[in-house]
Amino acid sequence: MIRYDFRSDTVTRPSPAMRQAMADAEVGDDVFGDDPTVKRLEETAAAMLGKAAGLYLPSGTQSNLAALMAHCGRGDEYIVGQMAHCYRWEAGGAAVLGSIQPQPIAHQADGTLALADIQAAIKPDDPHFARTRLLALENTLGGRALPLSYMKDAVALARRHGLAAHLDGARVFNAATALGVPAAEVAAGFDTVSVCLSKGLGAPVGSVLVGEDDLITRARRIRKMLGGGLRQVGILAAAGLYALEHNVGRLADDHANARRLAGGLSAFPALTVTPPDTNILFVAVAADVADAFNAHLKAHGVAVTSTYGMQRWVTHLDVDGAAVDAALETVAAFFR
User: Fold this and answer.
1) What are residue 194's DSSP bridge partners?
2) Strand order in 305-307's β-sheet?
């Protein structure tokens, strides 16, 4: 039985106030463009990210795919990091469904893509190559907030070569909180930005893709093609709207809890903790205790993700300071 769930910020449950907002939502048929709550959500997200228009989609995976397909046609290519979500963790949708070739390149230690590597990956105008159309970045990546100066330089490089730029901003508000700037500043320069509502913001489902009017119009058609056209979806959109209006400012609490958790875990020599930028921290567990430690946490109701001796702990609105203290006490009990 899970008592303290640190697996992901996707495990959050709607609060009573969010559920009430869902129950009270005014709805209409969104495929016909008649749902007023969806419209308010799209307009609010676009305004917060400094873009002209927004599009509500069922998931971040579909949002990224709609963006990639809006930017690229069959035989086109996008440059992306090896560990980027829209390349590695979304079932190859760009290639399988969009006939878009990914050109992955290695990340630097800080999560960035070296500008020289991006430039080297851009193909010349030659019929032997796929046509490079797009640079896709992700912020945050593995919980790390990419520097504003880096993103500005990367987008400028893309522009010099005639490329568009997409930001997978699933946790863009976490990035903005860590960097101490408005989310629109993180999104500046990108043609499209995808933001997830069902991670740290606490909504049960949904993402919003924002960008200029022509790209969002194109993405709306693609959403329908991908099966993402929904009807009285204002009931769900109301949760996303509540999240944007009430849960952005509190992300700083999640970051503080992650730092508190990291400090506590660092006290144990068998655990090597990567200091968190945001709400995600990684912990390398000594091989001789890894299996027993994972079993101990599970037996005591502390849920984390663990692969190859590396744990990922994620703080969110459903694990407060008391939950962090309880988890640390469970860890201490193992090492006594």
Assistant:
1) 168, 209
2) 271-274, 280-285, 310-314, 305-307
**Cβ atoms within 10 Å of 335's Cβ, excluding its own:** 13
Rounding to the nearest 10 degrees, give the CA dihedral for residues 55, 59, 62, 65.
90
Q: State how far the Cα of 102 lies from the Cα of 237, in Å rounded to an integer.
A: 31
Question: What are the tens digits of pLDDT across the range 30-53?
Answer: 999 999 999 999 999 999 999 999
- Domains of the chain by start residue, with CATH: 16-248 (3.40.640.10), 250-335 (3.90.1150.10)
**Distance separating alpha carbons of residues 218 and 215, to the nearest angstrom:** 5
- Beta strand 310-314 with 280-285 is antiparallel
Helix axes 36-48, 234-246, angle to 10 degrees: 30
Provide the β-strand partners of residue 103: 79
For residue 140, whether the previous peptide bond is cis, meaning omega lies within 30 degrees of 0, is: yes
Q: Taking Cα atoms as reference points, which of 6, 2, 1 lies closest to residue 320?
A: 6
Residue pLDDT, tens place only, 86-105: 999 999 999 999 999 999 99
- Helix segments in the chain, DSSP class H: 16-23, 36-48, 60-71, 85-88, 93-98, 115-121, 148-160, 172-179, 183-187, 213-225, 234-246, 251-265, 290-299, 321-335
Give the span between the Cα atoms of 8 and 4, in whole angstroms: 11
DSSP single-letter state for residue 163: -
Question: Which residues touch 301 (CB under 8 Å, ≥6 apart)?
Answer: 1, 2, 3, 4
Q: At 281, list the tokens.
A: 């921290």
- Residues 112 and 80: beta-carbon distance below 8 Å: no
Beta carbons within 10 angstroms of residue 57's beta carbon: 28
For the entire predicted model, the pTM comes to 0.96
Which pLDDT band holds residue 291 (cuts at 50, 70, 90)? Answer: very high
Chain-centroid distance of CA 185 in Å reads 17
CB 46 within 8 A of CB 98: no
